[in-house]
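Researcher: Before we compare anything, I want clean individual predictions. No alignment, no superposition, just each chain on its own. First chain goes here; please echo the sequence and then give the structure tokens.
Model: Echoing the first chain and its structure:
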Amino acid sequence: MLLEGSCHCGAVRFSLESHTPYPYARCYCSTCRKTAGSGGFGIFLLGLAETLKIEGKENITRYQAKMDDGSVSPAERSFCKRCGSQLWLFDPRWPEHLHPFASAFDTPLPKPPAFLDYFLSSRAPWAVPHEGDTIERLDGPYTVGMEDWHRQRGLWVE
């Protein structure tokens, strides 16, 4: 499925192909919470890195998070340097994938039938976890990959 997105000010526009357009995972880790600034969590999808097309590359800046142990994450978060919109995360350990943030998409995304809230132990005290029978909660990282989660639920889009 072709997904198109942009930053808030329109200085960066992008598109990429994704087999996993359902924004199901809400990450409450301190990095997502502080860089996303929305609801105390960040939501991202799985895109095919080789299909990424960008207009306005000169308006992109990157950030590598400092980890709790003092090391620097190899993953790079891309933002618009004009308006600060979070665009995507790229991790060179998995170069075939790109993780665009759901909030950056202009293409309407389908509502997932279930959600996964993770790193809840890192959530801000004011961030109230979502309620419902279709929400799985984890204190740490999730153990099922995005592709597996979508395939297990019949949500993989060719």
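Researcher: Okay. Second chain, same rules.
Model: Second chain and its structure:
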Amino acid sequence: MADINITRNHTLGKEEAKKRANDMLEKMKDKVGIKGAWAGDIFNVTDPVKGTFAVSDTSIKCELNLSFLMKAMKGTIEQKINESLDKALA
């Protein structure tokens, strides 16, 4: 089970939601150094945490596994992801 599991529903359609998710992830790359790549509608996060951002017609689902040291920052990471998703899907 993922350490962070966030699902955010939307009414944007898959393509628009993916575009906005990509914009959000690009900002996260600049701010926190997140690394990964898209495989279809799933962004596979490889560093500094492991997990996915999966885009569907009606939702974006974030599942992340944190390293032992990152688990101490779980609340902050979760808050930042929620804020970023809220902005991206507004």
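Researcher: What stands out in the second chain?
Model: The chain has a mean pLDDT of 95. Additionally, The longest helix spans residues 14-32.
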